[in-house]
Specification:
52% helix, Arc Repressor Mutant, subunit A, mainly alpha, 187 residues
């Protein structure tokens, strides 16, 4: 059996959760704030040492193993909203006729999949979105692009100069109507 190496911060967070809150992670050392907390949680989650019920984080069975502590009893399962809904769908499918259950199950799966976050691809990236906005006949303003992407204005201008003009060779033109905002387009 291999042992999982934990950083001192990870060790302290997991140990505190196990000892004080029945495995719920709600304490961090004073020096871990803001983005550092997210990085620690991401690191623990990526190594399957913690799990979530959709709202809170809990020490997973592998987290207990990493601490060299016995895993909690199997009857202490925390069921999240998604799992509870999935159990209901399965129970309904088992009790319904085959034709009905297939249709209902497929509709439920489709609805659940629609809520999942889709991974970024080249086609649905922020850069692709900006290019589509610049290809529209009306073009786009810096403000519109900032709103669509969440970028700062200087990031948009830098993307125009670097990625679009230099790397992709796009010809970006702009015009400023009397009393209006500057509008950018791909020529």
């Amino acid at each position: 059996m291999t042992t999982t190496q934990l950083t001192p911060a990870q060790q302290a967070i997991l140990a505190h959760a196990v000892e004080h809150t029945s495995g719920k992670i709600d304490w961090f050392p004073d020096n871990i704030k803001g983005g550092a907390r997210k990085k620690v949680l991401d690191g623990l989650f990526n190594r399957a040492l913690i799990t979530t019920d959709g709202t809170d984080w809990f020490v997973a069975a592998e987290g207990y193993d990493a601490l060299r502590l016995p895993r909690p009893g199997l009857n202490k399962k925390v069921t999240g909203q998604f799992e509870a809904h999935l159990d209901q769908i399965i129970a309904n499918a088992e009790g319904a006729s085959v034709a009905t259950s297939d249709h209902e199950l497929e509709a439920a799966v489709t609805a659940a999949e629609a809520t999942w976050v889709k991974p970024r691809t080249r086609e649905n990236s922020k850069q692709a979105e900006v290019i589509r906005m610049l290809q529209r006949p009306e073009g786009a303003t810096i403000g519109q692009i900032c709103t669509a992407t969440g970028w700062q204005a200087h990031t948009v201008r830098g993307t125009f100069a670097g990625a679009f003009k230099k790397k992709l060779g796009l010809n970006i033109v702009s015009d400023k109507p009397q009393g209006g905002e500057r509008i950018y387009r791909i020529a």
